[in-house]
Amino acid sequence: MPILSLITFLPVIGVFFILSMDSRRGELIRITTLLVSIVVFVLSLPLYFNFDPRGHEMQFVEKLPWIPSFGIHYHVGIDGISLFLILLTTFITPIAILASWHITKHLKEYMIAMLVLETGMIGVFISLDLFLFYVFWELMLIPMYLLIGIWGGPRRIYAAIKFFIYTMSGSVFMLLAIIALYFLNHRATGEYTFNLLEFYRLELSFAVQFWLFLAFAFAFAIKVPMFPFHTWLPDAHVEAPTAGSVILAGVLLKMGTYGFVRFCLPLFPAASHVFIPVVSWMAIVGIIYGALVSMVQDDLKKLVAYSSVSHLGFVMLGIFAFNIQGIEGGITQMINHGLSTGALFLVVGMLYERRHTRMIADFGGLTKRMPVFATLFLIVTLSSIGLPGLNGFVGEFLILLGAFKSRILYASIATSGIILAAVYMLWMFQRVMFHEIIHEENKTLKDINKREFAILLPLVLIIFWIGIYPNSFLRKMDASVNHLLKQAGGEVQTASHLQTQNVPVTPQIDIVSETETAW
Amino acid sequence: MTPASIMTFNILSILPILILSGFGMIVLFVDIFSSRRWREKNLLAYVSLLGVILAAIFARSSTGTTLFSFNETFTIDNYSLFFNFIFLLSTGLTILISHSYIRREEINHGEYYALILFSTIGMMLMAAGADLLNIYIGLEVMSVSIYILTGFKRSKLISNEASLKYFLLGAFATGFLLYGISLIYGSTGTINLKQVAGFIASKGGISDPVLLMGMGLIIVGLGFKVASVPFHTWVPDVYEGAPTAITAFMSVGPKAAGFAAFLRIFMTAFGSTHGEWQKIISILAILTMTTGNVIAIAQTNIKRMLAYSSIAHAGYLLIALVAANNIGVPGTLFYLLAYTFMNIGAFAIVIVLSRKGDECIQINDYAGLGFKHPFLAIAMTLFMLSMAGVPPMAGFVGKFYIFSAAIKSGYIGLAIIGVINSVISVYYYLRITVIMYMKEPAREFTPLTISPLIVAAIVISMVGTLHLGIFPSKVMEIAQQATLILK
Question: In terms of CB atoms within 10 Å, which of A276, A438, B187, B287 comes out highest?
């Protein structure tokens, strides 16, 4: 059964159902959309159970000719890295749809945009043909742009255009790099193809790798977003409707980090190694800068948005540690960030629906009125900080472990980001939830209803699951990550070797070589 | 080259042109003898459509062969057939979008359709021209018809102004072209493209400055027709002033015809001297793209915006000409076909939304369209995103081929400037969707007069845009076959 195609295109089939519905029958449209997304989620579960963790080869592969004269195929498949991102996507989408229950303005169009978005997101993670990948990558922009622009806040148009143009400017250079790879592959093998697996076998000269890495990395760095390309993110997050923010934080940002793992590292290993300091420093600046800016925000949504910059800095640091702990930590942290930050945006959305404000100063003392909400909110907050026992800890711990193994300096600076995270998150929680109720309006607030509980509960359960037993996730990715390191790590020795010659007496060298001998 | 041989021609090769000429005259006759009631019922539009369809059927029958006529000055090969198909498609779509418009503007005269058919004949002659003079004659037939059509709203000052401007500047440009042809003739002693190529090959390159100057003047003449900077100054005024349906027509047909001649002359006659002209064309390409896109941002009038966007698209197409390889040349054909669908589609929407005396051509007038007329808005969004080069629309695949061609031939810098331009263009194309979906309506749209014919045109354009975007394979293969002949 072509299960990947099924989960990718089922939402589009759902779109046709919704198109045929009367736009006045809101409830029917909501329920149909929710059902479609739940079916997609259920269908995606066999991917996890039937996934063979022993092999690094792509699984569930489908390959059909699409534009044969150009060697373009509809070629999809997953490995241990993309598996969890697909599950994250199919898991987050029903939650986001459930969180959009209050939407009444142009409901039909909204739900259509959500479903098309799901197709685009899954498509990005399953594509093994670079042309196909690019098509999905761009396709996904349109519904997100409409979600922000039509259903967003007061400055939605500015935010939507900024989002679109930022992403597009990055991705066109990636398109050129993809085309260049296509011709380089032809020159090397005589075959015209956009097959990623073929490209992995290419041996490119350093200069070529350097430029192509830059082109790809530019697109992904904007998407992640890495400092200093992050400025679109706070605007997009603040203006987007709750579900838009959830999907943006939950899935879209992961496409940047996924891009680094899937394309930059294995395709351009030598260049990736050269860029370790640049990327790591950008990540570290992002971690610290994101945390500091979060700390001074008055607006809850902005605070969460800037915390994303900080968290994704950790992911990038882990990926560019070039060892198994770092990369697995990075991937885990992608999932964690999707869950925790998604949940935080949902929580903020719930507060906003009640009070129509997101200013921290407008709240205070809510615990007394909303005890269930307070509990869930606290769990989510702590997961975002990285409390042991919850998911955030696993990811951050592995990342820092990996970073310490490769570069002690980077890891030590980055660790301060965790402390800062605790500061801004706990301080925010304290100001919103504790103390006396100052504002009259807050005295009549209702605790969360069943729908809202149903939205947050699955997130909280997964947060605990990953926190307590991460092996059910990590072991599925071992083979793929090891293979990735083999692809990207062939150069580790030369890179560290060069460094040994240049700077012979820094302690970190020993740690690097220790990593080498370890496996 | 005996005088008798001038009469040798293959009837099959010129049959489509004969059909169109015949139908052009039939339209004029029907116009005189039919009653007013029949004319109101769009009889003329149907008659001209019939002519276009018949011409297309007969043009298709000669696929795969190469036929010569008139002493080898006129050739029907896969290349000219592909272009004939583009011309007939744009003519057919133009007729579909015209009839309600010209009735509303009270310019419903038989000459309108006859002139469209005659200008199509000119384009077909241009694409089929195997020698420079034939290309020139085709260009004149095409241009003169369009000069008249531009001024067809006789009572409107703006239309007259546009027509006069187009005519005067166009006359200069054709003068340049003719001068270029005569210089080439003076230098090589022939106007046949193959023989010019043979002459250059025998000399081992262009050593004669007269020949070089002739080539330069041809670039000027054709550059004017395809609206490339710095020969573009007529475009915004003429596009704005012409009847909207004619604007749609001339942004597609003559541009395609210009590129048909451009490619044939530069690939066949000057193909071996690529190094001589690629630099100048690449400068033109950069200027054209950048000027078109940057100025388009500042436009508030949709017809002027589309005019500058049409300039920008000419720039992308010139990149393919510079690359001149087995992706770029068929890529140009593909792009022109895609452009036909998306551009006529966009103008069809402009026509639907305009009313008599109120052209509704300010971009801000589109506010709120998105939820008032979802079909029109979705169609417009599709066309705009396609022009911006967003997958999975035809425009993306076209740009993909063009940038691939540039990279394949090593013009990385040109490709980078091209993609940067494409990002700039996203801004103004996106603005249309922003205004349609994200702004509150500023005026009432109802009642719109949406005739079935114009809906048919919009649907055909949408299907074409999506089909070429999702399944480009077949058309690209045909285009690749078609351009083999140029080498």
Answer: B187
